Amino acid sequence: MNIILLGYPGSGKGTQAKVLSQKLGLFHVSTGDIFREELAKKSPLGQEVSGYISAGRLVPDRLVLEVLKARLAVETRGLLFDGFPRTVEQAEGLDSWFESRSQAIDSVIFLDVPEAEVAARLGSRRTCTGCGKIYNTISNAPAKENVCDVCGKPLMTREDDKPEVIARRIQVYKDQTEPLLAYYRSSGVFHKVDASRAPEAVAEGLSAMLAGKP
Ligand code: AP5
Ligand code: MG
After folding, report:
1. Is 169 an annotated catalytic residue?
2. What's the rounded Cα separation, in Å, for the pair 197 and 193?
3. What are the pLDDT digits (tens) for 82-104?
4. Is the CB of 134 under 6 A from ligand 1?
């Protein structure tokens, strides 16, 4: 099974992808996480994408597609994409990659959240520096301030969660990623889930939808 999660920055793609990939045995593909790992390692790729990420702009399509094709070449599990594709060009690149492997996308799920809510969610996000678990100081705080409940490592604020960068990311989403909704609506595999509910309710909605019982 191959699934794409689409939605605004802060719509809960990462939160839901972590749960769903475990539940379904899928490989979680987050291009944002890949780039942040490379940034942390200060690798040549990390240095190349650094300016785009800190400014809230998209990494060029050619580079994103190159990195993914290399990473996924030997992966045999089903894929759960989070944060990719983000442009029509990336979606076309993914379509031809799947075609070359005689595979297809089974579901494209749009996590529907009002724009007004996402900026507030991003401004209060914290991420574990150890295991990557995603928290929120308002809606999903750790038991001990700034310490991960799971692995005990400190939490951090993402570099691109500053107010001015959040605003840019939201605008970039509207300009470059929203056209993907029309692209996939005509594909017959497009679904929408109300992602403004609590994370557990969203997860239930996703599972019901995938089981064919929306
Ligand atoms: P990326 O890491 O993909 O960021 P994003 O798409 O902007 O999305 P986020 O990770 O910010 O949000 P999310 O939807 O995962 O929400 P989350 O679950 O964390 O990309 C970062 C950058 O990398 C891009 O700007 C770009 O530069 C580059 N990049 C990455 N992929 C690229 C690509 N394909 N092409 C080009 N460039 C690319 O939740 C957010 C917060 O809300 C958390 O605090 C969480 O606890 C909380 N929350 C989650 N669900 C709920 C809920 N139901 N109710 C209340 N709070 C909730
Ligand atoms: Mg994310």
Report:
1. yes
2. 10
3. 999 999 999 999 999 999 999 99
4. yes
Mean pLDDT of 202-210: 95
Amino acid at 4: I
Per-residue pLDDT, averaged over 165-177, amounts to: 98
User: Catalytic one among 57, 77, 153, 158?
Assistant: 158
Over residues 152-168, mean pLDDT? 96
Residue 214, classed as helix, strand or coil, is coil
Strands 125-128 and 134-136: antiparallel
Q: How far is the CA of 120 from the centre of ligand 1 (A)?
A: 13
30 pLDDT above the threshold of 90: yes
Which among 74, 77, 63, 78 has a CA at the least distance from the CA of 31? 63
Ligand that lies nearest to the alpha carbon of residue 20, given by its number in the listed order:
1
Annotation marks residue 62 as catalytic: no
77 among known catalytic residues: no
Q: Which CATH superfamily is domain 3-113+178-211 in?
A: P-loop containing nucleotide triphosphate hydrolases (3.40.50.300)
- Contact (CB, 8 A) for 30 and 85: no
Whether the Cβ atoms of residue 29 and residue 81 lie closer than 8 Å to each other: yes
- Which two structure tokens, joined as six digits, stand for 213? 């019982």
Nearest atom in ligand 1 to 172's CA: 25
In order, the DSSP letters of 99-148 are HHTT----EEEEEE--HHHHHHHHHTEEEETTT--EEETTTB--SSTTB-
